[in-house]
Amino acid sequence: MKPELISFKICPFVQRSVIILLEKGIDFDITYIDLKNPPDWFLGISPFGKVPILRCGDTILFESAVINEYLDETNPPSLHPSDALLKAQNRACIEFGSNLNMDIHALITAKDKGEFNEWCNKVHGELARVESKFSQGPFYNGDALSLVDVAYAPVLMRLQLLQKHFRLDLLDGLPKIQAWASTLSKRESVQNSVVPEFPQLFLDSITANKGHINTLL
Ligand SMILES: N[C@@H](CCC(=O)N[C@@H](CS)C(=O)NCC(=O)O)C(=O)O
Questions:
Q1: Domain's final residue, options 24, 53, 74
Q2: pTM of the prediction?
C-alpha cells in the first residue's frame, strides 16, 4: 500500500516526513493543498486542520513526530537510538524543535522592532540550548543520522535562508549547529525534501506577512 502525504509546500513539519520517506526509500504520493483555502476533503480527514497527514489506505495519521515514528518503525533499521533513555531524550529534543518552528514563525511575523528583537533572543537562546546538548558531530547523536536530524533539517534550512537574505545570523556563536546545518544541507534527502521553488515561496510568504524582518533588507 503506497502512502500518500498531504502537504503544504512551505510547511517545516511536512518536510520532516518527506525527509524520512526519502531516507528510507519509501515509494509515496504527495498531494499539495493550499492551507489558506483548504479543501473540504482535507478538513474532513485532518483532526487539527493541519498538515502533514499521512494516508495509509483507510487509515489517517497526523502529527509529524507520530508519522515519522511510524515510518521509522515499519521500515527498519530504526533511526532512533536503541537505549530507552537516549531515545526518550531524542523525542524530547524533537518536541523542542517543533516549538522552535513556532518561535521562528513568530519572529518572522513580528510586526514591531521590540517584539522582533525579543523573538530573536528567544530563538537564539533555544538554539544555544540545543548546541549545549550536541554530540561531537557530525549528527546530533554522533556518527549516525537520527530522527532528531530529520526533525531539525527544516528548521536549519530556514535559518540558512534568513541568514542569506536578511543577514539575520541566529546561529552566531553556535559553531556546532552551524556545522550541523551545513552537513544536513548537503544531504540528498534534505535537498529533495522541498519543491525547487521553495526558497522563493518561503521569502514570498515573509514579504506577504509584512513583519519587521522585511526592514532588514
Ligand atoms: N504539531 C504539528 C504541527 C503541524 C502544523 O502546525 N502545520 C501547519 C503548517 S506548517 C498547519 O497545518 N497549519 C494550519 C492551521 O493551523 O490551520 C506537527 O508536528 O505535525
A1: 74
A2: 0.98
